[in-house]
């Protein structure tokens, strides 16, 4: 028995009958892994966003304290939603002619307002003290 190879112009290659649906089964098997990776990436995005919010709120708190206003109110007004505000703590200090502020935020789990992770992110800010 001799085998001859011929080129086919178009169309799918013939497959054994037992391979039908194999790609669908493999996709179904890998889907949970893809979703898990997406959830982990999203959580890292939320953590990074928390660092950005904490740093910006600390800057606003330091600027407000430098001119004699309420630093805590300035920091909380700068946060985007009540979910971030509820876990915020603000500490203000002075170091000579510089007013420093540290804002700590609880990191939400996936979506702000539902659950929080057991750690906080902090942001530090500073501004020169202004005297009238």
From TrEMBL:
<keyword id="KW-1133">Transmembrane helix</keyword>
<feature type="transmembrane region" description="Helical">
    <location>
        <begin position="33"/>
        <end position="54"/>
    </location>
</feature>
<keyword id="KW-0472">Membrane</keyword>
<keyword id="KW-0812">Transmembrane</keyword>
<protein>
    <submittedName>
        <fullName>Pilus assembly protein</fullName>
    </submittedName>
</protein>
């Amino acid at each position: 028995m001799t085998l001859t190879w011929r080129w086919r112009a178009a169309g799918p290659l013939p497959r054994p009958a037992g391979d039908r649906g194999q790609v669908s089964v493999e996709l179904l098997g890998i889907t949970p892994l893809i979703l898990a990776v997406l959830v982990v990436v999203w959580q890292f995005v939320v953590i990074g966003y928390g660092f950005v919010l904490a740093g910006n709120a600390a800057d606003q708190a330091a600027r407000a304290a430098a001119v004699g206003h309420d630093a805590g109110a300035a920091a909380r007004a700068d946060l985007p939603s009540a979910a971030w505000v509820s876990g915020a703590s603000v500490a203000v200090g002075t170091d000579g002619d510089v007013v420093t502020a540290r804002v700590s935020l609880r990191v939400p789990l996936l979506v702000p307002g539902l659950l929080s992770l057991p750690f906080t992110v902090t942001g530090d800010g500073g501004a020169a003290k202004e005297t009238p």
